[in-house]
Amino acid sequence: MPVGERMLGYYVKIAFRNLLKHKGYSSLCIAGLAIGMACVLVIVSWVQDELSYDGFHAHADQIERVTGRNWAQTPAPLGPALQQFLPDVVSMARLKKADRVFVSCGGRGFYEEDVVFADPAFLAMFTFPLLSGDRRTALNDPSSMVITQEVARKYFGDSNPMGKTLTYDGKRDFRVTGVLQEMPRNTHMRFDILCSLQSAKALFGEDFFENKMNTVVFTYVQIRDGAEPARVAGQMDAFTRSYLGAELYAINTQAPEEWRQEFLLQPIRSIHLHSHLGGEFKPHGDATEVWIFSIVALLILLIACANYMNLSIARSMNRLKEVAVRKVVGAGETQIVVQMMCESLLVSGTAIILGMVLSRFLDPFLSPAFTGKGMRETVGAAYAIVPIGIALCAGVLSGIYPALFIARVRPVRLFSTSILWSRSPVNAARALVPFQFVVSTTLIIAVLVISRQLSFLQNTNLGFEKDRVVVVPLHDETIRRQCQSFKRELLRQQGIVAVTASSAIPGDVRWVTSFRWDGQGPRDDNTLRYIGVDQDFISAFGIPLLAGRDFSVTFPSDTVQSYIVNESALAKLGWQSGVGKRLELFWRPQGSVIGVVRNFHFTSLRQKIEPLAFYIDPHANQFLSIRLRDGDISGGLRTIERTYSLFSPNRPFEYFFLDDYWHKLYGNEEDLKSLFLEFTGLAVFLACLGLFGLAAYSAERRAKEVGIRKVLGASVVNLMVMLSGDVAKWVLAANVIAWPIAYFAMERWLQNFAYRVDLGWWTFFLAGGLTFCVALLTVSAQAMRAARANPVESLRYE
Amino acid sequence: MIRLRNIEKFYENKAVRTFVLRSVSLDIQEGEFVSVMGPSGSGKTTLLNIIGMLDTPSNGEYFLLGEPVHAMKEKQLTELHKRYIGFVFQSYHLIDELTVYENIEMPLLYQKESGSTRKGRVAEALDRFNIVAKKDLFPNQLSGGQQQLVAIARAIIGHPKLILADEPTGSLHSDQGKIIMEALKQLNEQGTTIVQVTHNEQNAAYAGRTIRLKDGWIQGEGSH
Q1: Domain range for A116
Q2: Is B82 on the interface with A (CB under 8 A)?
Q3: ipTM at complex level
Q4: Which residues touch A473 (CB under 8 Å, ≥6 apart)?
Q5: How far is B152 from chain A (nearest CA, A)?
Q6: A426 within 8 A of A317, measured Cβ to Cβ
Q7: What is the mean pLDDT of residues A605-629?
Q8: To the nearest whole number, what is the mean pLDDT of chain A?
Q9: How many Å apart are CA A351 and CA A88, to the nearest integer?
Q10: CB-CB contact of A114 with A190 (8 Å)
């Protein structure tokens, strides 16, 4: 066996024996590294996943999406026009996303969220794995449909779905011509059912394929292999001129920039992280988040390595004599360094294996942002590089400094440990502990602020009554037509207090349109948010009326000419009272304001309360909101369901509670809080680990001093205070650095909310106090042990 | 074999120089057994460390087998040390994580000897010191005398020309100490040069010559 391999085996053997001999210390080192590595692995997996979106398609690098300047969708005729105009475009496919739709088979049906219509070329361009069917022809027929395995099981059980029929919205039958494997998560699209876009005319209007302005489809083009994407993109201006025609193009060029029509190409691999257009398939990721969490992963790894370095430095001071002996019997510097690096790499190698196992178990406890993205998602030879790389980095980072220090000291000095204590690299390692506490303190402050803001968001009085309100979305045309009858029937039931129909619910009022009003200036912003309601909306939600009156059936003109506005609208429109003022929605006859309500939150508290106008709309029947009597919520739900089935016997009953809906509005903040809580726990744990190691080293180094002081009369308390004194300084230093960082970061985050809490000085003091207590607890065990040790042991001549 | 000329060793603290060795000049021939004696703080161990290349003199010249050690770089010193010198300490300084066999074998690993060579030499050393039965034990399972025998075995395994022993019997009782001194005497009779530091006159008598140090100076020499 070559000498090098022999020595390596020898070093590994020694490393194992050292680890086993000092089980407590070894466990601490490995555990700290493993936990840090587990978190890093989960984050790295997530980052890898985020970066991998849409990369799995065979032609991923050649496919571009055509978008507007601010909107992801384009008119339907645009795609074919572009393919004709640009010779470098070899294929084109469009997707039309359907709204939530009822799909049925025989007597069974479900509401499906992810139904998409696609051009026949779609499955050839995008290589989603097809289990059955021919991807070149599966969508040729206007009545063809491709479904995922999960959908197939839902409707057809275990039988072969090929050739079977599903009915779309009770209107049109589609035949299953293909079955897809489950949709991969790492794609910007989302569909369970693909219908042929050839049926769009019949379902979405005769002019679907002719209307050059309505942005209704996602358009994708495949560029010829070898063509430069930048050169192709450079031709889009010429295409826009050709597409719009000379006259429209001229008008377009003179329009304000924000209104100008512009078509752009977007590589599909950049969509997930870099596209923030309106009208996307689904919410995207954010490149900034990827950066942030990559930095977090690096910080965690550095902290874990710093801890291990602290502990190994403290430990290495006890091995000075061993190193001296080895040098005396002939070991060179390189051999000492290699031996110590072997030990360090053995620890980091063990830690990464443990970390990989831990990352699987950590998955369910980390926020949903990371759930399911543990190492099981990153199987494959390429991804094995990540854990190996982490283990190597950690092992080298943590072990190289103490190894080099000890290897270079002359043997005679290694025998004189008292000289070395004062010059050891532990002094440098001490700087790492305050750094860890800076990170921990910052995170604790962040968690406190996020928790307070979340509590504020969830508990603030919204200005209307949302408790015990059940919202029933009315998707079915049949029940919508009978909305008022449904409402009347409900009001006859016990347990129902109030019922109201509306086009939107408080929490999701999105629509904005142009208004005209008394006193309007030529340059005034003429947009208002609006909501179509019935006569009972204001009273059903308990919205306080400040002036005028509510809508009423005793005033038939309310149906056509009356508006109610909120206080913000008064301010915007420049009115003192508003009642009696003229107001006009551009598609309605001129009307007047009959009442003013107090401002209430109708969108999340991230936004200020905007001006809002209510009007009576007999077709405002997208949602029925039902307030239940207090005491028997489940009974009330059963009543509603029973009544619903009278009016829509063939559709499943769906509902949600309005307070749950509001709670979910802040899902992102909940996730953020969970994530920060978890990382804070980790940072604090690792910081305490480092502190523990340093405390152990300190106690050992000062054992002789402690012994002498004890002999001279110092009490255990005196000695504990002396040994713990450094901790107070470190925590103070950490807080001095952490507070401004946390202040700026949290102040910046809170700016995302129109309504927010104050940072509050007590948050910072609480965080500082917590870190101090945790640090003190960590070192007190070591300090007490050292203080209680028998001075005879430490003062014995060696 | 060893030639020291005007060797000085001092430590500087601000403007103050604390001398440990002052103008030490001596010659030691190959095959000699020399004892270095003197009161505590006289510089005996420092002298031994300088001869053993564990420390460097502040001034002066040191020649080992004609080679100018004082002018050599670190790597050359390590090679020279590895080849020619074995060290025996008062506190044995065995490595607790290694067995007796592995402790003795260690210098041969650093000298990159082959497996068969190592095996042969270690077996020979174990046999010589009658500790074959202890080869798989760890140092904490041995008596002081046995540990020192292992340390001597380790020191001679590379067939060094020179053995430096710093109070080799300092941690042992007299019977054990006698065994150690007999072992050293035997090595000397076989041609190994030995320089020992000792407080013990009886141990010093094993040597052919004694050098006495006081306050860093050579006070005198005597023969036995």
Answers
A1: 75-227
A2: yes
A3: 0.83
A4: A622, A623, A654, A655
A5: 12
A6: yes
A7: 90
A8: 85
A9: 52
A10: yes
